[in-house]
Amino acid sequence: MRKHLSKAGLAAIFAAATLVAGLSSASAADKVTVAIGQRGFWDTAVTQLGKEAGIFAKFGIDPDILYTHGGGETLQAVISGSSDIGVAVGTTGVLGAYAKGAPLRIIGAEAVGAAEYWFVRADSKLKSIKDAGPSTTIAYSANGSSTNAAVLEFMKKYGLKAQPTATGSPPATFTETMTGQVDIGWSTPPFGLKEMKANKIRIVARANDLDSVRDHATRSLIANAQFLDQHHDVVVRFMQAYRATIDWMYSSPDALEAYAKFAKVDAATAKQVRDEFLTKPMLDPDKMVGMDDMMQQAVAFKTLSKPLGKDELDKLIQIPPRK
Fold first, then answer.
1. CATH number for region 7-113+216-316
2. Superfamily per CATH, domain 117-209
């Protein structure tokens, strides 16, 4: 049964809902298929929590959510048209696909900076990711993901000759790391916090250690170009609901309770994830920042043959204005 929102939460949603008061009423909300990279993260839970709280419905949107194993899989779902919108896709992967003619548009920043971290078992000889040797396997989720880009950047920054290895989701990666199949695993809160507290794992690197991640929109919200052209108003309302949900997530205790239930963590962990690892400015969808740096990174990793021109970027990035 859907949980009732607090008065403060309802007030915030009502204020946001007035933005679409001028829209004609419809007998049913517009269904939008949404592919989301990884289930259970605070930042990737926006659509899920907003749907459960009734926020998207107030904007006439009914998200049909599909969880993928990472940004690369999400990217392919949107390119193929099997999903209308993709959440948490590595921006460098988007740039590369778009340059090759993929029907993609960026409709928002999913995250500025990142909460991801890389870890080893407590008994590992590795003290830092800098200690990785030629035979060391370093995990990332999937090709084209933000974790893939981060691993490549770690290797470039420290001159590593390690072996990047796609491992999928944090739970799968945790199992592979703890059983010795992978030397350095990747994760993001809340996954791994309990094991850290129990001294079962140690962090050897954080995504925000990288200049190319910190203060950069490393992950994007994307839409299939044809869907955006044919259903522009739907995408506008989706983004309005997305923004309203973020406002609610950082203002209402109901949101923390809903996330704790969704992620299957306690309330204290939910609050720690939000307040320590993913602050509200990091989730601002209007801050598509650091594009020049990320294009240079994409060129260095051969995702792009050359940086996109201004006209190309203007065509790619089509963030609906905040109302």
1. 3.40.190.10
2. Periplasmic binding protein-like II (3.40.190.10)
Sorted by where each begins, the domain ranges of the chain are: 7-113+216-316, 117-209
Has this prediction a pTM greater than 0.85? no
In degrees and rounded to multiples of 5, residue 203 shows phi and psi of: -80, 130
Question: Which H or E run contains 248?
Answer: helix 232-249
pLDDT in tens, the chain (323 residues): 444 555 555 555 555 554 444 443 444 899 999 999 888 999 999 999 999 999 999 999 999 999 998 888 999 999 999 999 999 999 999 999 999 999 999 999 999 999 999 999 999 999 999 999 999 999 999 887 879 989 999 999 999 999 999 999 899 999 999 999 999 999 999 999 999 999 999 999 999 999 889 899 999 999 999 999 999 999 999 999 999 999 999 999 999 999 999 999 999 999 999 999 999 999 999 999 999 999 998 898 888 999 999 999 999 999 999 98
Q: Which residue has the tokens 């995408």?
A: 235
d(CA 173, CA 178): 9
